[in-house]
Amino acid sequence: MSVDAQPVSELPDPRNFGLPVVAEDELPEELRTLVARVHDLVDAVAHTEADTSELARASAAVHELTERLNVKRRDVGAMLERPRADGGTDYQTLTNVVSGVSNPAAVPLVLEETEDGVRSEFTLNGTYQGPPGLVHGGWIAALLDQALGSASAAAGMVGLTANLDVNYRNPTPLNAPLEITARVTGAERRKVHVSGEIRHNGEVTAEGTAIMVRLVAPS
Ligand SMILES: CCCCCCCCCCCCCCCC(=O)SCCNC(=O)CCNC(=O)[C@H](O)C(C)(C)COP(=O)(O)OP(=O)(O)OC[C@H]1O[C@@H](n2cnc3c(N)ncnc32)[C@H](O)[C@@H]1OP(=O)(O)O
To answer: Which residues belong to any copy of the Thioesterase domain (predicted)?
Structure first.
């Protein structure tokens, strides 16, 4: 099996797929701050033991805020465009649930390119809980899927996940530093084979492999 990678600068332009594109410098700092605060709000709501009158006040305030923000909504599928250090262009789904910069539900997972793939350090708060004190297995799969897809994209091969296999080797703790790594291991025709791991204190807690099928731009 050989890796047939293209330069990253040849990533498909989302406009060719009919997707709206937002330049990174057009994204207001105020939106980033709002996203971070709502991210913290979700954790606060999940864990609050405030009294009923406080809960009622908070509920009314959040309802009012939701109505205000819904007055002007972005299209589903909007992509964020950012320049790369090497002169190319990077794209990311703005509201991606794992890593989207405008999604308060996102981790957010900020993946950096390494010599052989992508890597990130991150911590998951109680919002991502499955078993008591541990990260939900579905979110572990989502994190791996995102890293595996990003490793494929970083190698110039953007695709959709056709198959994802996850092995849970050890419990993944909440509120503790975690590391995720992923890389391309091979490619044939439109199939890209990728593998990755999540580690805590250097020990693998979960590992995954996937087949990404490369996107073909509409002609
Ligand atoms: C717009 C761009 C801007 C840039 C943007 C940058 C963003 C950069 C970061 C991205 C990071 C995202 C990370 C999250 C990634 C997801 O979450 S993707 C969402 C979940 N996945 C899906 O929704 C996919 C749903 N499935 C499908 O749409 C279609 O089945 C697929 C996967 C596109 C394949 O369909 P197809 O195009 O018709 O391909 P097909 O000809 O059937 O198969 C092609 C090859 O793949 C193989 N194959 C197909 N399915 C399978 C399978 N399940 N198992 C094994 N092999 C399979 C076939 O056997 C065939 O192999 P060969 O014959 O070449 O040996």
So the answer is: 133-204
- Report the C-alpha gap between 190 and 4 in whole angstroms: 10
**Atom of ligand 1 at shortest distance to CA of 212?**
32
Is residue 159 a contact partner of residue 190, using CB atoms and an 8 Å limit?
A: yes
pLDDT digits over 127-186, tens only?
A: 999 999 999 999 999 999 999 999 999 999 999 999 999 999 999 999 999 999 999 999
**Which domains, ranges and CATH numbers included, belong to the chain?**
8-15+105-214 (3.10.129.10)
Give the whole-angstrom CA distance, residue 108 versus residue 175.
14
Is the C-alpha dihedral spanning 142, 144, 148, 153 positive or negative? positive
Q: Which residues pair with 162 in a beta bridge?
A: none
C-alpha to C-alpha distance for 145 and 211, rounded to whole angstroms: 10
Bridge partners, 129 (sequence order): 135
| Nearest alpha carbon, ligand 1 atom 49 | 162
Distance 194 CA to ligand 1 centre (A): 13
Pocket flag, ligand 1, residue 101 (CB < 6 Å): no
Q: How far apart are CA 205 and CA 167, in angstroms?
A: 9
For ligand 1, atom 56, the nearest C-alpha belongs to 162
pLDDT bracket for residue 86 (50, 70, 90): confident
Three-point CA angle 79, 84, 87, nearest 5°: 120
Query: Does the interface predicted TM-score (ipTM) exceed 0.90?
Result: yes
pLDDT tens digit sequence for 9-18:
467 889 988 9
